Amino acid sequence: MKHRHLVLFDTLGHNRLVRCGPIPMRSISRWALGLPACALLAASFAWSQQAAPQSSQTPAPAQPAQTPAQPGQTAAHPDSGLKARGTETVAQLDPGRIVAEINGEKITAKDAAHMLTFLPPDKLEQYKKAPGGLAQALQDVYLTLDFAKQAEKLHLDQSPQYQDQLLLAKAPILGQAYVQYLTTQNYKLTEADIEKAYNDHVSDYEQMKLAGIFVSYTPAGGKPPASGKASRTPEEAKAKAEDLVKKIRAGADFAALAKTESDDAASAGKGGEIGPFTVGTAKQRLPPDIYPAVMALHKGEASDPIDRKTGYWIFYMTDRAQQSFGEVRQAVIEHIHAEHANEVMQTTLKQYHIQVQDNDFFSTPKPAAAAPKIPSLQNPPPKQ
């Protein structure tokens, strides 16, 4: 199969899709959304990081090999004897089975499944829920590829009219590949490295389950609640919050109080539950004036009321426990990879800091002043 330069587009009329580069028709691995270069680079890098296998992870246990059925034979689940169903299952058990025909070309299960992988996961999910499902997805992918092939036959890819567009489409994808290369070359992560990172930051992997009660008030000069509830003054809200803290510390059920007394609708129905998070992520997820108070709490403790300008928050530590290495191993790996990639990119990007040599070139010319108007012509006298 000859190599082709492709420009892919969304036949459904959504975001334009692009994919360029010397690649075989049946070995293109991904789509890339036609967004501005920087956003595309970041998005495609994040996607590739999630999709690419981590070389540092312990390999999964080998699965028993299955002998695929010969093309044309009926593949079946080994345990049930039923005909195989589903794209991945059919492609694995009977890769040569003809599953579709488009424009006179018969498409095997293996090729169809591969073409469907060109779509990002979120796009694929949209197709699954839409009329036509995966069959429509396959048709659109095939159509896009074939239109690009027809354009190349006409040498449209060599037309000066499209050269810049092809370059811009190709650059972000190659840029992402270069970022991947920079952040992974000669980089090996051993099990000892992972365990050391966990032990060095063991407190960061402490799991916290936090709940809260919000007692709102109307600031001086502020508008009363749109819900129609009676508004409180800051002093009234503080007094109520302090009374609630006394009840909680005396043994009252926090979840029950949150359901009846909290003015935060999102958490009140869940007994004040705000959600679990680790100590390592708490600083990023909690506001600076709340973080110290929450971090000081042990399991079963409630904070003093914290003023948030529209009300007082009372926080309660439902649970706080250390997670084992096994529970957070994958999170540790991801953290190490992220830190390494960040360090590499910070060093690399310093080389690209622009040094302006001519300010005149980068200056924005001021718009020309409008010509003065002739007063006598602005408001002509009304006709008699």
Identify the notable features of this structure and list them briefly:
384 residues; alpha+beta; Chitinase A, domain 3; four-stranded antiparallel β-sheet; two-stranded antiparallel ribbon; 15 helices; 44% helix; disordered N terminus
Protein described:
The protein is an alpha+beta fold and 384 residues long. The protein has 2 domains: 3-51 and 71-173, no CATH class; 201-325, Chitinase A, domain 3 (Roll). It is 44% helix and 12% strand. The protein has helices at residues 37-51, 87-93, 109-116, 121-129, 133-153, 160-184, 191-200, 234-249, 254-261, 265-268, 279-285, 291-295, 325-350, 359-362, 375-378, and strands at 3-4, 17-18, 23-24, 32-33, 98-102, 105-108, 206-216, 273-278, 306-307, 311-322. The strands form 4 sheets. The protein has a 4-stranded antiparallel β-sheet. The chain has a two-stranded antiparallel ribbon with strand order 1-3. Strands 2-4 form a two-stranded antiparallel sheet. The chain starts with a strand and ends in a 6-residue tail after the last helix. 19% of the residues are buried.
Strand element count: 10
Mean pLDDT: 79
Strand content: 5-15%
Overall outline: extended
- How far apart lie the N and C ends? 84 Å
Biggest sheet strand order reads 8-7-10-9
Task: Show unreliable segments.
Answer: 1-80
Number of helices: 15
Q: Secondary structure elements and their pairing?
A:
Blueprint lengths: L2 E2 L12 E2 L4 E2 L7 E2 L3 H15 L35 H7 L4 E5 L2 E4 H8 L4 H9 L3 H21 L6 H25 L6 H10 L5 E11 L17 H16 L4 H8 L3 H4 L4 E6 H7 L5 H5 L10 E2 L3 E12 L2 H26 L8 H4 L12 H4 L6
Antiparallel strand pairs: 1-3, 2-4, 5-6, 7-8, 7-10, 9-10
Helix pairs in contact: 1-6, 2-3, 4-5, 6-13, 7-13
